[in-house]
Design goal:
Layout lengths: L3 H4 L7 H15 L13 E6 L2 E7 L8 H9 L7 E4 L13 H7 L4 E4 L11 H8 L3 E3 L4 H7 L1 H9 L3 E8 L4 E3 L11 H12 L3 E5 H7 L16 E5 L10 H4 L6 E6 L6 H7 L3 E5 L9 H10 L4 E6 L1 H9 L5 E6 L9 E2 L15 E9 L2 E8 L5
Parallel strand pairs: 3-4, 4-5, 6-12, 6-13, 8-9, 8-12, 9-10, 10-11
Antiparallel strand pairs: 1-2, 1-3, 7-14, 13-16, 15-16
Helix pairs in contact: 4-5
Length: 383
């Protein structure tokens, strides 16, 4: 039988080993994206003797936490082991006891943390509690990667709104349809499948009224096995023009639909929307009489959303870019050219100088069939 000293052979570990196990925890954390809000998506790996003895990730709805799941799987093997946690363990009582206390009670020798939790109830307190109990703690291991995984949670904690990802699927010259409105299909099946995966990884999907009126989309995740991961559907409809028979309204009891509308609007559609299960969120207007997008996103953040995927249309994309509210940009380019008479993916938003253009840095690119999918991060995210 191995002694406690044998179990501690991997402590202290070298930085490369720590980063390797932290990346394993981050892979687990990603499993929670889209279904754990308002909580962060956390991963935890418990290692003893150079082997994984327990692993866990935040479960749907945010409970149980990753650390609890990993400790349950590790059992007595957690004693004198090392836990790799992608986000600082919580130190406050909520619907469950603090994870920091659970790690202490399990008898861990060491805890390696990817990122400090910005939640005012936690920030630094989880680390302090672990150290006070005599546990060796390493922080900021793989911090940049951990921050990217939980960019949505961090955005809501720091800015009060969810992370906004704008997804565009266009021709090489930035068109989403021909001049006659034909758009199916510009991108191929692999790119379209990746869109459904994106939906599953976000808390909500947002479109404008024009997209609903033109396409009557379902806005659900239809990948095999991921149907239950369909996000909340959000529609900006300032005058409640969407017909109650549209998929997003008629099926609101099956897949939640939130309609952002002006506070001043009071027409016959209101009761029809409510009768079908849609939730109306009233927002003040901006100077131009449109829905104030900053206020709208703040309202979504107050409801717990951390990640919103925007899929259309051109005016909504332009308004978000103009307001510097796009944090991530996923651009799918199909290998065809439509020409100037095609419908652009982004409407005009009055840009006059290149110095004022929203700027992004590329963080990923992949080829899916004949299409190229590039992911960008805003150069000035404001975090």
């Amino acid at each position: 039988m191995a002694s406690e000293a044998d179990d501690r052979e991997d402590w202290p570990a070298d930085p490369h080993t720590d980063l390797r196990w932290m990346r394993a925890a981050l892979v687990l954390a990603r499993r929670g994206l889209g279904n754990v809000w308002p909580n962060p998506a956390v991963g935890c790996v418990i290692v003893a003797g150079g082997r994984v003895v327990g692993r866990g990730w935040t479960q749907p709805g945010g409970r149980p936490h990753a650390e609890t799941e990993a400790l349950c799987r590790a059992g007595f093997k957690a004693r004198s082991a090392t836990a790799y946690v992608s986000l600082e363990p919580c130190s406050h009582w909520g619907r469950t006891p603090p994870c920091a206390d659970a790690l202490i009670e399990a008898g861990l020798a060491r805890v390696v943390i990817g990122l400090e939790d910005p939640d005012p109830r936690v920030v630094g307190a989880g680390v302090s509690r672990l150290r006070a109990a005599g546990i060796a703690v390493e922080t900021e291991v793989g911090a940049a990667e951990a921050a990217e995984v939980n960019a949505g949670f961090l955005t809501r904690e720091r800015l009060g709104r969810p992370l906004v990802t704008l997804k565009l699927a266009t021709s090489l010259d930035g068109k989403i349809a021909t001049g006659t409105g034909e758009s199916r299909w510009i991108t191929g099946p692999l790119a379209r499948a990746s869109t459904h995966k994106l939906r599953a990884e976000h808390d909500a999907i947002m479109v404008g009224t024009g997209t609903v009126l033109a396409d009557d989309p379902q806005l659900t995740c239809r990948l095999p096995g991921l149907g239950h991961h369909s996000p909340v559907r959000i529609v900006l409809d300032r005058n409640l023009r969407i017909p109650p028979g549209a998929h997003v309204i008629a099926e609101a009891q099956e897949t939640p639909t939130w309609v952002l509308t002006l506070r001043s609007v009071n027409n016959a559609s209101r009761e029809a929307f409510l009768d079908r299960g849609a939730i109306l969120i009233e927002i003040d207007s901006d100077a131009a009489g449109r829905i104030d997008l900053v206020a709208a996103l703040q309202a979504l953040g107050a409801r717990g959303l951390t990640r919103v995927l925007v899929e259309g249309g051109a005016r909504l994309a332009a308004a978000l870019l103009e307001a510097r509210l796009v944090d991530r940009l996923v651009w799918m380019h199909a290998p065809l050219v439509i020409g100037a008479d095609g419908i652009p993916a982004i409407a005009a938003f009055g840009l006059r100088a290149l110095a004022d253009a929203p700027r992004f840095e590329q963080i990923a690119s992949e080829t899916l069939g004949e299409d190229i999918v590039s992911t960008f991060r805003a150069s000035d995210p404001g975090l």
